[in-house]
Specification:
single chain; about 325 residues; alpha+beta; Beta-Lactamase; Alpha-Beta Plaits; 2 domains; five-stranded antiparallel beta sheet; five-stranded mixed beta sheet; Diguanylate_Cyclase; GGDEF_dom; Rev_trsase/Diguanyl_cyclase
Length: about 325
């Protein structure tokens, strides 16, 4: 491969012109495909805090094949591939051989943490080529880190409201079960939940905003420890939070939220002591406008607030019992 400076600059310009993570990842693979004579390129996401018996959970994000590639000898279980594991541990590229192929494995480092791994199989490999690919990968990782920072609430470390607003429709349409054998059914649903810390204004008034912020921070930590890695956690604004829970039954979502409610009640917040929270949940129906689903969850939350707080409610259950007025699914709602 002969790559001149103009070609590399064009690749960098194309990658850095993208403004969201999926587009950036796709652009990286496109540019590598244009620049390299390769057999297979694989992009993996490394699940954070997923280490179990020194095994890291790898999620296949994308794969590109050369039409003439012979793939019989290629790795299929990357979670046990020594080269991939060494790449994650050492945070440095690894070079090895696989039959007639060279295997180049590179980390995508975001704030010195391995966000993903790029595995490339190709026939010819030299130091100059390795450095070229490494620099292109580093540029991509830096851009992903910048995008990630813009998506995060600075106080709690959860996803922020702007991220929810910009991706809400995609979140609803792209929700997939964590286990491949699961599929949507009449009993299994995706859920949007609004959580609200009870009497938070009184906490701020009595103890001050410093302790109020500490409550928000510790509350978000309890969320991270009690919800699944696959659940999406957002700080919606002030003392309100949103959780998107995928592929559970009605009884399961109630159990999940009750477990979280009890975890909050049992936690002693510094200076403040006991804190409670209320939660309103709505089933995610892809045929509904996302804002309608949010309003349904908000109606259920309001019911909890008006009826004693420190409880969990599902919108459709309340509507069936005529405890609340059902949200008009055809209404034009402007929440953002």
């Amino acid at each position: 491969m002969t790559t001149n400076t103009i070609d590399l600059l064009k690749s960098v310009a194309n990658i850095t012109s993208k403004q969201n993570k999926p587009a950036i990842k796709t652009a990286l693979l496109d540019e590598l495909e244009n620049l390299l004579t390769f057999d297979v390129i694989t992009l993996l996401k490394v699940e954070s805090n997923s280490t179990k018996e020194h095994r890291h959970q790898m999620e296949l994000v994308a794969i590109r094949y050369n039409e003439s590639a012979i793939t019989d000898c290629l790795e299929t279980d990357f979670s046990s591939d020594p080269q991939v594991l060494n790449c994650v541990t050492d945070k440095h590229y690894q070079v090895g051989a696989c039959d007639k192929y060279n295997q180049l494995t590179l980390p995508l480092l975001v704030k010195n943490q391995v966000y993903g791994v790029l595995v490339i199989y190709l026939a010819k490999l030299d130091k100059t080529l390795i450095k070229t690919i490494e620099q292109l990968t580093n540029i991509t990782a830096n851009l992903l880190g910048t995008i990630h920072e813009s998506e995060i609430d600075t106080l709690t470390g959860l996803l922020n409201r702007k991220t929810l607003e910009h991706n809400l429709s995609d979140f609803f349409s792209d929700l997939k079960p964590r286990e491949p054998h699961l599929c949507p059914s009449e009993d299994v649903h995706n859920w949007l939940v609004i959580l609200d810390i009870d009497n938070f204004k009184l906490i701020n008034d009595k103890y001050g905003h410093t302790y109020g912020d500490e409550v928000l921070l510790l509350f978000s930590d309890i969320m991270k420890h009690n919800f699944r890695h696959s659940d999406m956690l957002f700080r919606y604004g002030g003392e309100e939070f949103i959780v998107v829970i995928s592929f559970v039954t009605e009884s399961q979502v109630i159990d999940i939220l009750e477990r979280f409610r009890l975890a909050v009640v049992s936690y002693l917040f510094p200076q403040v002591g006991r804190v409670t929270m209320s939660a309103g949940a709505s089933r995610i129906n892809p045929s509904l406008h996302p804002n309608t689903v949010i309003e349904q969850a908000d109606k259920a939350l309001y019911f909890c607030k008006e009826n004693g707080r420190n409880q969990v409610a599902l919108h459709h259950q309340l509507a069936v019992k005529k405890l609340i007025e059902a949200v008009d699914i055809d209404s034009d709602i402007e929440l953002f």
